[in-house]
Design brief:
The structure holds two protein chains of two kinds.
Chain A (H helix, E strand, L loop, with lengths): L1 H27 L19 E4 L6 E2 L7 E7 L4 H17 L4 E7 L4 H10 L5 E4 L5 H4 L7 E5 L5 E6 L4 H13 L2
Chain B lengths: L15 H15 L4 H12 L14 H27 L2 H30 L1
Classes of the chains: A alpha/beta, B mainly alpha.
């Protein structure tokens, strides 16, 4: 009888613990901002953007051989505003170091986007995709999202959320190491 | 499923991303791509979580097997519980019932005696 009672209790406890473990995983398991992406290790999807300065289109393939920091942003996005000055600072630090920063504006309008770029004095390349394909091509689910591409054209990391200088430095370092 | 709006499909969601995804699906259908090709396109970019039904592979088998496992455990639990009830001898069962009756009788007698004393 005791064995039956113990088995029943243990079974119930096992089921409860199992459910708690599943819930915990679903809530906390994917909370990292350095997110896994199915694109990591794969060739970065090519794109052609319309530049905000209405000059030459921005084509990813033109920057092969450089470490590329690809940043998806929107003018209405609060973390995008938080990271704008950091990105500008980092760009000035790395621009002569075989690194390219490309900003891709999504889910926005041209006027608001240009105002954002002016307000934050963003000078690195920024453009938008009139076909709205590039963000889906990269598996973007929100803004800001940043992808690091190494000199071989492979995606090495994805980051969701506002960047800080240490993270940018870390990403550039691992992109170089991955070549 | 929409990667932005949890629990909503791409057709249900009004997020910007869902709108973009519907546009891409429409274009790919017009290009003649199959359902599998279109799903594969999104899985390559968003992972298996973009599918409404997760494929039965890797850790996903837990999602599919857990209702059956829970049912199995429940059936075993009920079986053992019913077995325990059946095994209990009748005289023990009636003896427990009689003891309960005696206890309530004693309590009832005490109440009556107390009431009688109050009347005196």
């Amino acid at each position: 009888m005791n064995i039956v009672n113990n088995f029943s209790r243990l079974s119930i406890l096992a089921v409860i613990l199992f459910i708690i473990a599943l819930l915990g995983y679903s809530i906390f398991g994917n909370n990292n901002t350095i997110k896994s992406s199915p694109l990591i290790g794969k060739v970065a999807p090519n794109f052609t953007l319309k530049s905000f300065d209405h000059q030459n289109d921005i084509k990813l393939e033109d920057y092969k051989g450089k470490v590329i920091l690809l940043n998806f942003w929107s003018s209405w996005c609060v973390p995008c505003k938080e990271e704008a000055r950091t990105l500008d600072f980092a760009w000035n630090k790395f621009k002569d170091d075989n690194v390219e920063f490309i900003g891709i504006n999504i889910w926005d309008n041209e006027f608001q986007a240009k105002s954002f770029l002016n307000n934050y004095n963003v000078v690195y390349k920024n453009g938008f995709d009139p076909a709205s394909l590039v963000q889906v091509d990269y598996g973007v689910a929100g803004v800001p999202e940043t992808y690091i591409i190494n000199t071989s054209g492979l995606v090495v990391e994805k980051y969701s959320g506002a960047l800080d200088l240490k993270i940018i430095e870390y990403f550039i370092k691992i992109a170089r190491l991955s070549d | 499923m929409c990667p932005v709006c949890q629990g909503q499909t791409v057709s249900e969601s009004n997020s910007n991303l869902a709108i973009d995804m519907r546009l891409i699906i429409k274009r790919k259908l017009e290009e003649g791509q199959s359902r599998e090709e279109i799903l594969s396109y999104f899985v390559e970019r968003y992972g298996d979580t973009v599918l409404a039904s997760p494929p039965v592979k890797g850790i996903n088998w837990i999602l599919w097997a857990s209702p059956l496992i829970a049912l199995f455990i429940g059936v075993i639990f009920i079986h053992f519980y019913l077995s325990r009830t059946k095994e209990m001898p009748r005289d023990q069962a009636s003896s427990r019932k009689n003891n309960t009756n005696e206890d309530s009788d004693i309590e009832y007698k005490n109440i009556i005696e107390k009431e009688l004393k109050n009347l005196d």
